[in-house]
Design brief:
Mean pLDDT: 88
Largest sheet: 3 strands, mixed
Helix content: 25-40%
Shape: globular
Number of helices: 3
Structural class: alpha+beta
Distance between the termini: 36 Å
Strand content: 15-25%
Number of strands: 3
Bound molecules: zinc ion
């Protein structure tokens, strides 16, 4: 049972930037993937197992893509 349904401030596990995301069980506590690394990692490492390593895109990381409202 998870109570982590609200995004929280995380530190990017890749570049150290602050980002909003949700804790993924396979990540250290307080760490997640920032949006720029969510873009570059799949390009640099196409075989990377993103769901296993970082969780669900748009939910655990890269929230901006799923919540792209209010930007116009
Ligand atoms: Zn990053």
């Amino acid at each position: 049972m998870s109570t982590q349904d609200k995004p929280r401030r995380l530190t990017c596990c890749c570049c150290g930037a602050e980002t909003m995301g949700r804790q993924w069980w396979n990540r250290d506590i307080g760490y997640g993937l920032c949006e720029s690394c969510a873009e570059t990692i799949p390009k640099r490492h196409p075989d990377e197992d993103m769901p296993r390593l970082y969780g669900v895109r748009g939910y655990h990381y890269a929230l901006g893509e799923a919540q792209a409202e209010g930007t116009t």
